[in-house]
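Worked example

This section walks through a single chain of length 318. The input is the sequence exactly as stored; nothing has been trimmed or padded.
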Amino acid sequence: MEEQWLLINYQELIKSILNGNRSIQEPISIANRRRDTTSSVSFLNHLLSYQNIHKDNILEILAGIYGKFLNRIDELKENNIVQVMMDRINSEWYDPDYIFLIENPFPNNFFHANNQNNHYYDQSCKICSEVEQLTKIENNIPLQLQENESHPLEKHFRSSIDACKKSIHYLEENCQTIQSIIHTLRNVDMTQFMDLSIKHKSIYLKLSEKDDEDDSIPENIHHIFSNYIHIHNLLLKQMIQYYHYLEHLLNDLKEKCQTMETMKRNVTSIAYLKEDEQQAEKSEEEEEEEEEEGDLTVVDGEVKKERGNLFHNLTSFF
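Given that input, the structure is written out below as tokens.
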């Protein structure tokens, strides 16, 4: 029987990493229901242990957490002391660009659109499979087509090819969007965030020249920035993996579409070929009949029919 573990409440887990009370890079200790055994799991594995989080939606979950960190950093920037620290680090790096202004790279409808990728793929695969089955059945039935007559499978081929092309276009647009997001995430400069991730609260207090405690600065503010870095990295990795997964679906659809087009040409050409063969056989029979009739010629004043080297008398004298 599989061990049942007591997971941390999801909202509490997210709150703890946003406030810096828990470091993502550290293992999470959980106990079983009997509380006689403990186990250490990574942050990502703990997320995947929730019943409603799985490999199909982990990208959306990580993107949601990433968005929360962007909002958290914006909140911290409203603190004058934190802002002074950011400005100081920016000047120490002699960076003309202020890197602490980060926009969320995900469009509002990104996940709604990408949740349809598998639907389009599965629908196209189903139609193609049905057409392939119909083709196998049709090949076992004698078929004769007139020159301007459509093949019975013509509409099925057309619908399957149209469905594949529609799905290919949809997936290609999403691949382009994902590439753009990956490019944006790759270009985020983490150097100064890494610098902030080693600046403890005491340094902020020293910078502010305050002797008393300042509750406006989180106790583990350095963990907030280090957690943001790790979430950013996890999200980027997941985006790259999803892109390659989507690219695999896209290539498979292109192959199926090409197969449908080839089958369409082959089936219709075979049908017309049978008709051409029959016409050719009929022409050969007519030629043989004409040869059997032979040619007429006049020999010594008589009309005779020539068969090979023999002449047969056909009528009396002229």
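What to look for: The longest helix spans residues 221-293.
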